[in-house]
Amino acid sequence: MNPYAGSMHADVLSEEPKDEPGKLRLVDEVKNRAKAAFQKKDMHSAHLLYSKAISVLETMPGKEEAPLYSNRSMVRLNLNKVEESLEDAKKCLVIDPTFVKAYHRKAQALTRLSEWDEAIAAAEAGMKLEPTNKAFEEIIEKANQDKAKDQEDKAKLKRDAQDVRVELHNASTSRQNNPAKKEKKEGEDDESGGMRGYKTTSDGKTTSYFHTEISEEAKRLIAEQGFGKPQKLEAPTEDKEAKGGGSSWNQAGTYEEKGQMNWVKRELPQALKGISFDLPQGGKTVVTGVVDIAGDASITVARGKRKHLLDLTFSVEYDIKAGDDTGRGKLLYKEVTANDDDDMEVETEVNNETAGSLKGLIDAFVKTSSTGLQPMVTQAVKKLIAQFKQL
Asked: Is residue 335 part of a domain?
């Protein structure tokens, strides 16, 4: 029975080539499908496909690829398989100790597991290889904050537990020092009316023993002074700017985070749609839309310092036309960050219905990052990132 019968990738997941060339061709196909599945946020399929590529390469000594373990580590983080994600990050670093992204994955997994010191150590190791990568600084800062909060919470629990023990001890001592009240003999008055802790007021009502009865004269004076009635505050409220540009209530400049994904999903399609490049041979290629926008965009304020965090993936759809021939495809942008030093990873997909005569034009003016449509789109993305950093 085929365990992958219900998967759209059953053909490659069930394939078992015998020779090395066949295995390598299968791995290439599986990797391409895994990347596409990740872009579509189909983490289950991406996990199956990356695992297939890894298992095939394991049958060929010396063919293991560090990026596969790093990519599966990220997929497993998305699936909340944190321990397994950590193992993949470690395996990646065994294969290639200079693979920077694996240190980031490792630090993320350790942070989720509340292993603060190890997470900081992993981030610091990554910083040694890539000192300009601000993502490591952010992980270290957040890990230190979470560690401090965790220690504070544990200390509070310990104090609360100690208070409970003291109260129990005091209650036990009180019972020992105060023997039970003797039974009321027949004929003796019972001022409590038969209920402990209660008394009868002057109007005949029963109330708590600790209730203070207010005289009519006192009530009159309170009413004349207006006490007990809601009072209108005339003083205007003052809206001060918080440290680091946080909310007005956060005057201390402590940690605050505001999500900006809605802004990205609104502005990114508007910024890119309609970008076009005129082909030298005649015709043009034009952006028609932006889809599959995923990731994280947020602004944090910590200790008065404002930071813009960005980690996006998205697909830019385009049409191409030359003469009577037409075609469609996508530019797949991966791990787009707010760091100026980070190069954008871009892959290209071509629709099966695209005319064969256009493949050369796509290779020359869409796939390449030096001329044509792609550099124009990338420049527009960078401009939007600059706007995001001004928020």
From this structure: yes
> What's the DSSP call for residue 338?
S
CA distance 53 to 37: 14
CB 336 within 8 A of CB 292: no
Q: How far apart are the C-alpha atoms of 318 and 329, rounded to whole Å? A: 6
The CATH number of the domain holding residue 318 is 3.15.10.20
Q: Which of 129, 145, 161 is the last residue of a domain?
A: 145
Buried-state track 137-176, b at ≥16 Cβ within 10 A, e below 16: eebbbbbeeebeeeeeeeeeeeeeeeeeeeeeeeeeeeee
Per residue in 239-283, pLDDT tens? 555 555 666 556 555 556 778 889 999 999 999 988 999 988 788
Cross-strand pairs, 294: 313
Q: What is the pLDDT of residues 319-355, one digit of tens each?
A: 999 888 899 999 999 888 887 766 778 888 998 888 8
**pTM (two decimals):** 0.45
Distance from chain centroid for Cα 335: 14
- Beta-carbon-side half-sphere exposure of residue 88 (alpha carbons within 13 Å): 26
Residue 358, φ and ψ in degrees, nearest 5? -90, -10
Classify residue 299 as exposed, middle or buried by CB count within 10 Å of its CB (0-12, 13-18, 19+): buried
Confirm whether 203 is domain-assigned.
Answer: no
Residue among 253, 233, 237 at smallest CA distance from 245: 253
Burial classification of residue 75, based on how many CB atoms lie within 10 Å of its CB (0-12 exposed, 13-18 middle, 19 or more buried): buried
Alpha helices by DSSP H, the chain: 10-13, 20-39, 43-57, 66-78, 82-95, 100-112, 116-129, 134-177, 216-225, 261-272, 359-362, 373-388
Residue type, 301: V
How far apart CA 156 and CA 21 sit, in angstroms, is: 62
**Joined tokens for residue 113:** 């597991």
